[in-house]
Specification:
By secondary structure, the chain is an all-alpha fold. The chain has two helices and no strands.
Length: 93
């Protein structure tokens, strides 16, 4: 003689959130998310500095004075580009 388990009652439709089929009320404000740290310009800046340092170490014509000059020019360009990027996000009131 085989026994079969009793039938299970159908699941309720309430969902536990106050009504039939109603889920939690979740609103995502994507504009309020904090920006992720870092950006593509920072990666390019760091890679350019590493490349210039390697060239300065390996070359006789390009020395530390040339590296410092290039470092200063690239740093100024990086800061100006970040300033322009931030200025474009300013909301007018």
């Amino acid at each position: 003689m085989s026994t079969t388990p009793p039938e299970q009652p159908p699941p309720s439709q309430s969902g536990g959130y106050g009504g039939p089929g109603i889920g939690p009320n979740v609103n995502f404000n994507l504009n309020a998310l904090m920006p992720t740290p870092g950006n593509a310009e920072l990666v390019v800046y760091i890679l350019a500095m590493i490349l210039l340092a390697i060239i300065a170490l390996a070359s006789d014509a390009y020395n530390v004075n040339g590296w410092v000059t290039a470092f200063t020019a690239i740093t100024v360009a990086y800061l100006v580009s970040r300033g322009i990027a931030k200025a474009s996000r300013v909301l007018e009131q």
